[in-house]
Amino acid sequence: MEPAPQVDIDALALRAADGDKDALDDLLVAIQPRVRRICGRMLLYPQDAEEACQDALMLVATRIGTFAGRAKFTTWLHAVAANSARSTYRSLKRRSVELPSEELPAGVDPRTTSVIAGSRLDLLDALEVLAATHPLLVEALVLRDIQELEYSEIALLMDLPLGTVKSRIHQARKTVQPLLVARL
């Protein structure tokens, strides 16, 4: 069995951004596993990660024209996928509040149990607090600490000086740290 040929994602993305429909189709197929992994880092329950993945792919398809090629496409993609996962989390959280407690398994506390079983609920909740209190800090923190992008990639993606990115990440960490539940 021959290995799959390497795809130049950046070139494919630029062709798709210029309106090439075949390039867009090829791009979506090529990036789906990566998007699923990105969403899976934030939403560990597979069905939730898949929902976020599909939403992110839809966003890529509809917003590919905004990709200008200033940064690597994968850097842009990380931001789209991470934002999609956070949006999916917010949606699922709203739905879980509406879920009658009698539909939860016996012995499960509806105040601490979500339909997003297995996810770092404390982290996702802390990101929601951060978004409400310091919205400019969220994206940099997610890209660095969850998606594990390099500071320089984040600076390019956000079109900010490197020092500003580092400052935002530092401030975000200071804000979020007290909100995280200690793990044993």
UniProtKB/TrEMBL annotation:
Instruction: Name the InterPro entries for this protein.
Output: RNA_pol_sigma-70-like, RNA_pol_sigma-70_dom, RNA_pol_sigma70_r2, RNA_pol_sigma70_r4_t2, RNA_pol_sigma_r2, RNA_pol_sigma_r3/r4-like, WH-like_DNA-bd_sf
Q: Which Pfam families match?
A: Sigma70_r2, Sigma70_r4_2
Keyword Flavoprotein assigned to the entry: answer is no
Membrane-crossing segments per the record:
none
Domain of life where this protein originates: Bacteria
Q: Which Gene3D superfamilies match?
A: 1.10.1740.10, Winged helix-like DNA-binding domain superfamily/Winged helix DNA-binding domain (1.10.10.10)
Q: Name one GO biological process term.
A: DNA-templated transcription initiation
Instruction: Alphabetically list the UniProt keywords.
Output: DNA-binding, Sigma factor, Transcription, Transcription regulation
- The RNA polymerase sigma factor 70 region 4 type domain covers 139-175
Annotated RNA polymerase sigma-70 region domain residues: 30-95
Q: Which GO molecular function terms does the record list?
A: DNA binding; sigma factor activity
Query: Which PANTHER family does this UniProt record tie to the protein?
Result: RNA POLYMERASE ECF-TYPE SIGMA FACTO, RNA POLYMERASE SIGMA FACTOR HI_1459-RELATED
State the family named in the UniProt similarity comment for this chain.
Belongs to the sigma-70 factor family. ECF subfamily.
This one is known as RNA polymerase sigma factor
